[in-house]
Design a protein that fits this description.
The complex is a heterodimer.
Chain A: H1 2-5, H2 8-29, H3 33-59, E1 62-65, E2 76-79, H4 81-108, H5 113-132, H6 136-155, H7 160-190, H8 195-201, H9 209-225, H10 235-241, H11 244-269, H12 272-277, H13 280-300, H14 305-326, H15 339-366, H16 377-380, H17 382-396, H18 402-416, H19 420-446, H20 467-488, H21 493-502
Antiparallel strand pairs in A: 1-2
Helix pairs in contact in A: 2-3, 2-5, 3-4, 3-5, 4-5, 4-11, 4-15, 4-20, 5-6, 6-7, 6-11, 7-9, 7-10, 9-11, 10-11, 10-14, 11-14, 11-15, 13-14, 13-19, 14-15, 14-19, 15-17, 15-18, 15-20, 17-19, 17-20, 18-19, 18-20
Chain B: E1 4-6, H1 9-26, H2 31-51, H3 53-57, E2 61-71, E3 74-80, H4 82-108, H5 114-133, H6 137-155, H7 161-192, H8 210-223, H9 235-238, H10 244-271, H11 273-278, H12 281-301, H13 306-326, H14 330-361, H15 372-375, H16 377-391, H17 397-412, H18 415-441, H19 461-476, H20 482-495
Parallel strand pairs in B: 1-2
Antiparallel strand pairs in B: 2-3
Helix pairs in contact in B: 1-2, 1-5, 2-4, 4-5, 4-10, 4-14, 4-19, 4-20, 5-6, 5-10, 6-7, 6-10, 7-8, 8-10, 10-13, 10-14, 12-13, 12-18, 13-14, 13-18, 14-16, 14-17, 14-19, 14-20, 16-18, 16-19, 17-18
The chains are: A mainly alpha, B mainly alpha.
Chain lengths: 509, 497
């Protein structure tokens, strides 16, 4: 069994790719098979990711050489605590979204189901690929696979979604170009594309202008991909007009995986020494602070729920980047190093995944997009709205939810880093979150439907979404609380501590 | 010297309202079952809370750690000391009465969304008791925020524009202050390395510079905005649009007292009396509280809406508690601690009376109450007891707490503060006696019938009994008996463990 697990990193990618082709072929014969194949594959991948995580935690990293080629020439897949963790997070949300999509796609895109699942599976392939690979050029390839399938999925509703997708296509391609250019620079200097190899070869060239330029190119390229504040312009439309499960994936996973890529490049290709040579991460902190404030302020001005959530994602990417920026200065165990950043990657996936799926449920049930139209939904769709409240309260950061855990850890990290300004930013942002989320909650529960009768206590018929859509929403919402308590109880922290030890980010006692 | 007893009792006490909340949701279709959960849970909780009294009276503390080392050197857990127990007794005892009262009130007015109401009410009590039992600031913060959020649906219950506005205002004030509180806690943690409450203050703070500590203290006081001090008080009168039982238990006892409780914790158990004195913060806090005591009383005089007048009276009385603590003298602090219980009993009586007047006659304003004492004698008698208590007249508990507070000012040696106390008491008379006068001796021309022209009679028994009980208690506790003895001993133990 243990031997099999060492093949899982490659199997997760290959099976996913094959499954994508199978969905396409089987879809010719019977359209109904596509969901089953896709959901089955993702479930399998999800279970496999747990095996990988367990194996990595008990026996150390897994290194898999593709075709048996020796590293600097061949591609290798490396699983350590960092990407094993990210893999679990990403497949968790992918699974929730695919379960949700069954009824939603039947409703929204009945003719395009086969192509939807084919591309969805391709998207998962790309995301898994970015996560598992230990080769920087290979990572670029998977970034492109992810992006291309995302463009198609965003455009799948047609009409205005085409424009949203095109904006993303243009900006995403520019981002990918920058990323590739950066990789090219590094290759020109060192002649290697393997991350581990690069991390050995690069230190001699840390003051070389080309290496610095390479890093900056990669940073800017990935910043576009992860919608870091001034480069976020593609994101709101893409999130708003994509099918809701794709919005959830975009916001909860796709931009997070780009952050993972940045973390990987910063710490595995470059090293802590390089990051301490230049104030790169300090600058990132300030950009993130602007992202947090601006994202929240822009969210307040929105009338469309999904656009509002999209701007909230911009703010939340700011949280993750702020936490990343602080990671090299805060070194004390529970909040030091990458802990808050990695923690918020999971937390944001749970919260925003849940919120977008709820937004999709409103669209599914009543074709409601604007916040002002949600009057009285709290009574019509009690479970969906309760899930929304849990996730929204979590975004505001009320204990004991996941949002609180993130907020607390980022604040403690900024205090340890002696950057008190960011404490203020975090606190202010939770107030801004309150403003835009509470508006929705108030409309859901406290305002009566105008057409409905006004008599007190009258029984309003329930119009819940089907169980297949409700289940992922409720699971994500309850995870918002359960994980919040687990974070505070420090149950998953050993995994993150592994990452910090790997990158030399915590004080060793 | 004091030892701690490991026990699950604090957790059990908290489990009562939490499980009640879940059961209420599950039995939303069966009103009788739903309400019985509330009553059962409140009784069970009170029994558990009371079972801790002998332990605490013996000079021990009940401790229960849920998460060891949640942050570095911070546990998530409970430690019940005499002061926390005093607050818990107040909230849990009054919860029993108010939950019985709620049944009568909500049914008589045929209120909507009753499941949500009972659910949120139970959650709010969960938050309040959690605040009382918390062993450190981080735990306290968690419950403090739960309390804030869970009371929002209660404030906005009516769902009218006015109620929605009140709800928004409520959240805007209290969650902003919650953010400041978090800042203060984290700040405190980074300075002292711990947030555990300890009698006499946290040691690590004494070495910090004076300016930093003053800023920290201001942050803490702003953080506990639930104490509704001027100029951050206006959320409380606005929140009076909530159903009366909510105003009674939450906005006279649980929520606002959680704020005051927090300030007392900060003064006595985080900064410590000595440090407060060295920093001269006591004088500032006392002056600040004095302004609220007098200012809120002046505001109260101008109110015609009965609940709003009571709300301003609450604001003024809450500052008595802050004032007593800020005197930094043993008597003053004891006075504050017992005033948490005593004011709870009296103010809840007044609110419950206001609610039963509303149910029986539909009247909300004082000017409409002419002669109502003659048609609702029990209610108005209870109201009179509460009002006398507020003014500090014998034979009510109001006298005892004022006596202690007065002694506190003398111990402190500042007669200006004694004068403030006296002026404020005088103002209490000015705004309470007109109500009594109107009710008992006023012109009863139209007041014998309600707005629909029906003859007014006493409210349902489930409302009259709780309010008579609290009124009775307000008198009973004023006389030497084992109960009063217990309360005073708890306050003494809290001060000198």
């Amino acid at each position: 069994m243990i031997q099999v697990v060492s093949h899982f990193p490659v199997l997760i990618v290959v099976i996913s790719l094959l499954s994508s082709i199978t969905i396409f072929l089987a879809g010719w014969i019977n359209k109904k098979t596509s969901w089953w194949i896709s959901a089955g594959t993702i479930l399998g991948q999800f279970i496999a990711s747990f095996f990988i995580l367990y194996r990595v935690l008990t026996q150390g990293p897994i290194v898999y050489r593709l075709g048996g080629w020796v590293p600097p020439w061949g591609i290798e897949y490396v699983m350590d605590a960092l990407n094993a963790y990210i893999l679990v997070v990403l497949l968790l949300l992918s699974l929730a979204c695919v379960i949700y999509s069954k009824r939603n796609i039947e409703h929204e895109l009945p003719q395009k189901a086969v192509s939807f699942y084919t591309i969805y599976q391709l998207l998962i392939t790309g995301l898994c690929g970015i996560t598992v690979t230990g080769d920087i050029f290979n990572m670029y390839v998977f970034v492109e696979i992810t992006a291309l399938s995302a463009y198609a999925l965003i455009a799948s509703r047609g009409k205005i979604a085409l424009k949203a997708s095109f904006t993303y296509l243009v900006l995403g391609s520019i981002g990918a170009c920058f990323f590739l250019l950066g990789i090219g620079f590094l290759y020109a200097i060192t002649g290697s594309l393997n991350m581990k190899d690069l991390s050995v070869l690069l230190p001699a060239f840390y003051h070389n202008r080309m290496v610095i330029a390479g890093f900056v190119f990669i940073l800017v390229g990935l910043s576009i991909k992860m919608a870091l504040f001034p480069l976020h312009t593609w994101l709101p439309d893409a999130h708003a007009f994509a099918p809701s499960e794709i919005s959830a994936m975009l916001s909860g996973i796709i931009i997070e995986v780009s952050t993972y890529a940045l973390i990987r490049v910063s710490f595995s290709v470059f090293t802590l020494q390089f990051l301490q040579l230049f104030p790169i991460f300090d600058i990132l902190c300030w950009i993130a602070a602007i992202a947090i404030i601006m994202g929240s302020v822009l969210a307040i001005t929105q009338v469309n729920l999904k656009r509002m959530l999209a701007y909230s994602s911009v703010a939340n990417m700011g949280y993750i980047i702020l936490a990343l920026g602080l990671s090299i200065s805060a070194k004390t165990s529970p909040w030091g190093g990458l802990n808050p950043a990695l923690m918020h990657i999971l937390n944001h996936a749970l919260m925003k995944g849940c919120l977008f799926l709820v937004a999709g449920a409103f669209i599914y049930k009543a074709d409601l997009w604007n916040i002002a139209d949600f009057r009285g939904l709290g009574r019509k769709m009690p479970f969906t709205c309760a899930a929304f409240v849990v996730a929204a309260v979590s975004m505001i950061g009320v204990p004991p939810t996941v949002g609180f855990a993130s907020k607390l850890y980022i604040i403690l990290a900024s205090i340890e880093a002696k950057k008190f300004f960011f404490v203020g930013v975090m606190l202010l942002s939770s107030l801004l979150n309150l403003v835009y989320f509470w508006r929705v909650i108030e409309t859901l529960y406290m305002k009566r439907a105008e057409t409905g009768d006004h008599s007190h206590g009258s029984h309003i018929p329930r119009e819940e979404v089907p169980l297949g859509m409700l289940l992922p929403i409720l699971v994500l919402a309850s995870l918002c609380i359960i994980m919040g308590i687990l974070w505070l109880a420090k149950v998953p922290t050993p995994i993150l501590d592994r990452v910090n030890i790997l990158f030399g980010l915590v004080k060793t006692p | 010297m004091t030892e701690t007893v490991e026990s699950l009792r604090p957790v059990l006490a908290l489990a009562c309202p939490l499980s009640a909340a879940i059961l209420i949701l599950l039995s939303s279709m069966r009103p009788n079952l739903r309400e019985s959960w509330t009553v059962i849970a409140s009784l069970a909780q009170f029994a558990i809370v009371v079972s801790m009294v002998p332990i605490v009276l013996a000079g021990q503390k009940v401790e229960c750690i849920l998460l060891q080392d949640m942050l570095l050197h911070v546990n998530f857990g409970f430690k019940v000391d005499a002061f926390g127990l005093l607050f818990a007794i107040t909230s849990s005892f009054l919860w029993i009465l108010v939950s019985i009262y709620s049944i009568g009130y909500m049914r008589a007015l045929k209120e909507h969304a009753q499941t949500r109401y009972y659910f949120c009410f139970a959650l709010a009590i969960f938050g309040a008791i959690g605040v009382a039992f918390s062993a450190n600031l981080v735990t306290l913060y968690v419950f403090y925020e739960i309390l804030t959020v869970s009371t929002y649906p209660l404030v906005a219950h009516e769902e009218s524009e006015e109620a929605l506005f009140a709800g928004r205002k409520y959240l805007a004030y209290l969650l902003t202050s919650g953010v400041l509180l978090l800042a203060a806690i984290v700040f405190n943690y980074s300075l002292a390395g711990t947030t555990d409450f300890s009698p006499g203050g946290i040691q690590g703070l004494t070495s910090v510079s004076q300016g930093v500590l003053s800023i920290l203290f201001v942050l803490f006081v702003l953080g506990f905005m639930k104490a509704a001090y001027i100029p951050f008080h206006s959320w409380l009168p606005t929140a009076m649009v909530a159903p009366t039982p909510v105003s009674a238990l939450l906005h006279a006892v649980a929520v606002v007292k959680a704020g005051v409780f927090g300030i007392v914790r900060i003064v006595c158990f985080v900064f410590g009396v000595d440090l407060m004195r060295d920093l001269h913060l006591g004088v500032w806090l006392a002056s600040f509280a004095g302004v609220t005591m007098i200012g809120a009383s002046l505001f109260a005089i101008a109110q015609d809406n009965l609940k709003k007048r009571l709300a301003y009276s609450t604001i003024s009385q809450l500052s008595y508690i802050i004032f007593g603590v800020a005197l930094l003298s043993p008597m003053g602090i004891q006075g504050s601690m017992i005033h948490i219980l005593f004011h709870g009993c009296m103010k809840i009586t007044l609110f419950l009376c206001a609610g039963s007047i509303l149910v029986a006659s539909g009247k909300k304003n004082i000017s409409e109450l002419g002669g109502i004492g003659r048609v609702m004698p029990i209610t108005m008698l209870a109201f009179a007891v509460g009002a006398l208590g507020m003014c500090g007249f014998p034979p009510t508990v109001g006298l005892i707490s004022k006596w202690y507070l007065g002694l506190g000012t003398v111990e402190n040696g500042s007669f200006v503060f004694l004068a403030v106390l006296m002026v404020s008491s005088l103002l209490d008379v000015v705004y309470f006696f007109p109500i009594l006068y109107v009710a008992f001796f006023g012109n009863s021309g139209t007041s014998r019938s309600d707005l629909q022209g029906r003859r007014i009679k006493e409210a349902p028994l489930s409302m009259v009994i709780p309010l008579s009980m609290t009124a009775l208690l307000s008198v009973l506790l004023a006389f030497p008996n084992p109960l009063t003895e217990m309360v005073l001993r708890l306050a003494r133990i809290a001060l000198n463990p």
